[in-house]
Design brief:
Layout lengths: L12 E5 L5 H6 L15 H11 L3 E5 L9 H6 L2 H7 L2 E5 L21 E3 L13 H13 L3 E3 L9 H10 L5 E3 L11 H12 L6 E6 L1 H4 L10 H11 L4 E4 L5 H4 L2 H14 L4 H17 L7
Parallel strand pairs: 1-2, 2-3, 4-5, 5-6, 6-7, 7-8
Family: Belongs to the metallo-dependent hydrolases superfamily.
Keywords: Decarboxylase, Lyase
Organism: Salvia splendens
Length: 298
């Protein structure tokens, strides 16, 4: 996909964001899924404007719920002509659900690089460790495609499933969205859940997204209550298993895109990380696991 660039400043890669069609584009060619019409702009031109202002070089796009299983809008952005016109290299994932593929037909084309498991799209009463879930998880590992987990209702609800999949299929890389949705603990029960997030680091294939800070912080921007969480996650996983993400465009009305990146920088400074560790979190980690390219400047 993206050609290797000459050596230069470390690339800053946003590991978690969404794009969807504008209302005009939706009416003409890329319809929204019924009942999932967006309430805020998320078209690619707006994203590029925000990335330019923030000094962000690339992005891992997560398929939005607004188009559900129709990936045509994101696929359009992957065409060589479109990439050239946009003057930007995108790192994309289809991040579909259990209903997106059968394990036998699962493949990655058009620049797609990963899968997302959304436990709330599984049939009622079934787990991600059912026959289909295991087959897809195993197939993703065979294809070298990371599997993201969105545990929006709480990591503890899905921890045993993730552990079972990691144990049975150690070659499949796992991405935990939004710090596993662990907020700064306020009681013993929340402390235990956060400890379980840290304990998942025993599986070397597990990576954590330091993303959507506004979703996990109990405070307003710049989300300073996450300082201790960030320090402990980095200590447990190592910077080379952590990646920052904005959750664009949802982050824009919360604090702004540029400000979201700056909030992460501030938290990493508070954690007293080295410049090398910061480079891993801000771009090298996602570059390595998506493109097997650890270089921070390519």
């Amino acid at each position: 996909m993206a050609a290797a660039a000459a050596s230069g400043p470390p690339k800053i890669i946003d590991s978690h964001l969404h794009v969807w069609a504008s209302p005009q584009q939706a009416a003409e060619k890329y319809p929204y899924f019924p009942g999932q019409e967006p309430t805020l702009p998320g078209h690619v031109e707006f994203l590029l404007e925000c990335m330019g202002q923030a000094g962000v070089d690339g992005a891992l796009i997560v398929q939005p719920i607004n188009h559900k299983f129709d990936h045509s809008y994101v696929t359009r952005l992957l065409s060589p002509v479109m990439l050239e016109n946009l003057e930007c290299h995108f790192y994309h994932t289809p991040f579909g659900s259990v209903k997106s593929y059968s394990h036998s037909s699962m493949s990655f084309q058009d620049g797609y690089r990963a899968v997302r498991f959304n436990p709330y799209l599984w049939p009622s009463g079934q787990l991600m460790t059912n026959e289909v879930g295991k087959a897809m998880f195993a197939k993703a590992g065979e294809l070298g495609a990371p599997v993201g987990f969105m545990c929006m209702k709480g990591l503890d609800l899905h921890l045993s499933e993730i552990e079972e999949l990691c144990t049975e299929f150690p070659s499949t890389v796992v991405l935990l969205d939004h710090l596993g949705f662990c907020k700064p603990p306020k009681n013993q029960e929340e402390e235990q859940v956060f400890s379980k997030l840290l304990n998942l680091s025993r599986f070397p294939q597990v990576y954590v997204k330091l993303s959507a800070l506004f979703r996990v912080s109990r405070c307003q921007y710049p989300y300073e209550d996450l300082s201790d969480i960030v320090t402990k996650v980095v200590s447990s996983y190592g910077a080379n298993r952590i990646m920052w993400g904005s959750d664009f465009p949802y982050v824009v009305p919360e604090c702004g895109y540029k400000e979201a990146k700056e909030a992460v920088w501030q938290l990493l400074q508070q954690a007293q990380l080295s410049s090398s560790e910061t480079e891993w979190i801000m771009g090298r980690t996602v570059n390595q696991i998506i493109f097997n390219n650890p270089s921070s400047s390519s």
